[in-house]
Amino acid sequence: MEFLLYIILITSAFVNILFFYYDFFPFFKNILKEKRKKSTAPTDKDVKAIENEILKTSFDIIEPDKQLTTWDKKQYVSEKLYHYIKGTKSDSFKKFHFPVAFLYHGLSSYVLNKNKESDILRFKAVFDKIIDQTGQPKFTMDKPDQVPFGLTALSLYDKFKEAKYLQFSEYIFQFILTNLDHKGIMLYNKSSDNQYVDVLGMIVPFLVSYSKVSGDGEALILAKAQIDFFEKHGVDSETFLPSHSFHLKTFIRTGSVNWGRGFGWYLLGINAVNSVDASYVNKMEKIFSSVPSIGNHIYSQFPGSSQKADLSATMMLLNCFLDSGIITVNKEELINTLQPYVQDGYVMQTSGDTIGINDYSDFFGKSEFSQGMMLLLLSKLK
User: Please, which residues bridge with residue 195 across strands?
Assistant: First the structure.
């Protein structure tokens, strides 16, 4: 009897430890983060100091391969334990996914624009670890989310004229071509019955940049085809705002119709094409007037139904509106506006990865993606 009681007590203690570790602490950690953000007094650091801190922190993230983005959905303790024991969860994909790809893109754009040789060479050494001398990736390329790594390669090719960077870009272009469906469309997820707006922000900017560097007109035609296909079935004709996705057989629009990051993925696509021929400038202007901000160019995770800032949506929209000349802002104004969401050089308040259609993250925190988009924005400002 004593032995049985002992087992029960040990089991109870173990279950309680799991509960506190996976449920209690993460829940209150988010609350404390939110309170800390709200109570943070304005910093006495000047704009340059904050900018330098963001740059330093970005290198601190990218050099040791820190993982910042919140990927997990809310799970019961039993579900977490099941995945751990069975080994069905793997973190290997995180190192070569879109948040890291956009951090590379933003950081490369920043250091190349600032033209400080030591920072450029420092970044080059980081990027060179993920490709070999023939331009082949040292990782398995199997999803559209990895295509933005090509933006960095094209920037480095423009700077150094090393063949491996162009060869890597050509590898990515061929990856896209071999994954087109019978309509010439790259699906975001081949196993899904839906096409997602995400794919536009993942592949169109690369296709446009590749077209500029290589002179391959097919890449630009292909970029426009991806946008046109999504617009036909997934974009509102009055506001020009996209739904998260649409069903490929019935063409029913699926997912949120006011997902802030979804707006951003669409904008990144049309913004890239605008840099060539201004095809979508009128739509960009209409979208700017359609998307409600929560104050001073800050946007929420779900514009129109949420007042909680989402820096991933905010950074995407600001980059595109700035490029289009719809808004004008200088570096001091930007940093003063975003300073409450920057802590120790980290860009905070980013919603976690979306789990699926109608299944959005309620966790907010650091992300390589917002870090990279902030650097991209700063690279354009004086």
Answer: 246
Q: How many CB atoms lie within 10 A of CB 82?
A: 13
Q: Which of 325, 309, 315, 318 is nearest to 370 (CA)?
A: 315
Question: Closest by alpha carbon to 227, among 259, 186, 189, 193?
Answer: 186
Work out the angle between the directed axes of helices 198-214 and 149-160 (0-180°, nearest 10).
20
User: Cβ distance 104 to 62 under 8 Å?
Assistant: yes
List, for residues 10-61, the tens digit of each pLDDT value: 777 665 675 555 555 554 555 445 444 444 445 567 899 999 999 999 999 9
Contact 176, 203 (CB under 8 A): yes
This prediction has a pTM of: 0.87
DSSP run (H or E) holding 364: strand 364-365
What is the DSSP-derived secondary structure letter of residue 42? P
pLDDT > 70 fraction of the chain, expressed in percent and rounded = 84
The model's pLDDT over 185-243, given as tens digits with 9 standing for 90+, comes to 999 999 999 999 999 999 999 999 999 999 999 999 999 999 999 999 999 999 999 99
Evaluate whether 300 touches 257 at the Cβ level (below 8 Å).
Answer: no
88 has which bridge partners?
A: none
Phi/psi at 333 (5° precision)? -65, -45
First to last CA, the chain: 75
Amino acid at the residue 369: F
Q: How far is CA 7 from CA 3, 12, 85, in A?
A: 6, 8, 21
Contacts of residue 8, defined as CB under 8 A and 6 or more positions apart, other chains included, come to none
Q: What is the DSSP string of 82-140?
A: HHHHHT----GGGGGSHHHHHHHHHHHHHHHHHT-HHHHHHHHHHHTTSB-TTS-BSS-
Q: What whole-number distance in Å separates Cα of residue 302 and Cα of residue 242?
A: 13
Structure tokens at 269: 């696509």
Please state, in angstroms and rounded to a whole number, the distance separating the CA atoms of residues 154 and 88. 36
3-state secondary structure of 309: strand
Q: Where are the alpha helices (DSSP H) in 20-93?
A: 25-39, 47-62, 77-86
- Beta bridge partners, 131, equal 137
Phi, psi (5° rounding) for residue 114?
-75, -20
